[in-house]
Design brief:
7% helix, mainly beta
């Protein structure tokens, strides 16, 4: 809650001015946004059944930040201890690697808001061949590891040029091994080749108004599109491989939502989109036509991140209290 409040306050004037500039510029345009209306009064089904709970303390985790699933179904989790922990689907810790520092294989996960130092950014993704990608926010880089934790390479450095980071955050890897990285401070998303070369960059203070703001990304949908939440604009965006917005919708969180709305997003294998807040309130599920079809109520397990989906039907989510939840999908049609 504190993180989003700070970000909104820090960027409100810049983002607002940029929107005005883009809106007045000749030729400024974006893909049309589909706007599903507020949920009808019908009772929405709950999208998940919890089948197991793994407490952070039981797993030796301190303030876990993000998780990803590998091709073998194992989980990879980052936390405040500046490590990656590999966990089996049954909740057994298999290995850990990393320590505080700036050398290869070391991490400096930092918070965007200095008043909440435990709310670190140490995002993680697993590529199609099982390689593990870690967003090392305080060292302005992305590090790549084998599933066993052996350091392979790194890319990125501190700066504001294309291919550099001011505050590296969310990342996702597509089937070709390209890596998409959000910068929490520069307000950009950069696509990198499998070798770590910057291909394109979107966002920042100009261009498509839908892309001006803070970006959260964790998924490539079944059509190969990068799925992004812009929490300043309160839109879910679908971006193709060339960096062009091709679809969008506004998820319309309830007016009583405690922190303003959408903040996290993932997509499952059939194309349903799961939109969560910043660790509080419900998780909403939208079908491929962007219609609201299910709702996870939130407490006692409000999700810190939207659920992640494994290659063999595994579904896991990280709750705000650090608990890792193993889930079974009960979404209509899933």
């Amino acid at each position: 809650m504190g993180l989003r409040t700070l970000r909104m306050a820090a960027s409100a004037m810049t983002v607002g001015a940029a929107i005005l500039a883009v809106g007045c510029a000749a030729g400024g345009s974006s893909a049309p946004s589909k706007q599903p209306g507020p949920a009808a009064s019908r009772v929405l089904p709950v999208p998940f059944t919890i089948t197991a709970r793994y407490a952070a303390k039981m797993l030796g985790l301190s303030h876990p930040d993000a998780l990803a699933i590998g091709p073998d179904g194992n989980l990879y989790v980052t936390d405040l201890s500046q490590r990656v922990t590999m966990i089996s689907p049954a909740g057994t810790v298999l290995r850990r690697w990393g320590k505080p520092g700036s050398a290869p294989g070391e991490f400096n996960f930092i918070a965007f808001d200095p008043t909440t130092p435990a709310d670190i950014h140490g995002k993680i993704a697993v590529g199609p061949r099982g390689m593990v990608y870690v967003s090392d926010s305080g060292n302005s880089r992305v590090q790549v590891f084998t599933p066993q934790g052996r350091f392979v390479r790194q890319f990125g450095s501190f700066g504001s040029r294309k291919g550099q980071f001011l505050h590296a955050s969310d990342l996702v890897v597509d089937q070709a091994g390209n890596v998409y990285v959000a910068d929490e401070q520069a307000l950009t998303v950069t696509k990198f080749s499998p070798a770590g070369q910057a291909i394109w960059q979107i966002g920042g203070a100009s261009g498509n108004p839908d892309l001006i703001g803070h970006h959260h990304l964790a998924a490539i949908d079944p059509h190969g599109r990068l799925v992004i939440v812009n929490d300043d604009m309160q839109k879910v965006l679908y971006v193709d491989a060339s960096g062009r917005e091709v679809d969008a919708f506004s998820p319309h969180f309830p007016a009583s939502f405690p922190i303003g709305g959408a903040c996290e997003v993932t997509v499952d294998a059939v194309g349903d989109t799961y939109v969560s807040g910043c660790g509080a309130g419900p998780t909403l599920v939208f079908d491929r036509a962007h219609q609201l079809i299910a709702k996870w109520p939130g407490p006692p397990y409000s999700l810190l991140r939207s659920p992640v989906f494994g290659p063999h039907g595994e579904v896991f989510a990280l709750a705000r209290n650090g608990t890792i939840l193993r889930l079974r999908i009960t979404v209509p049609g899933a």
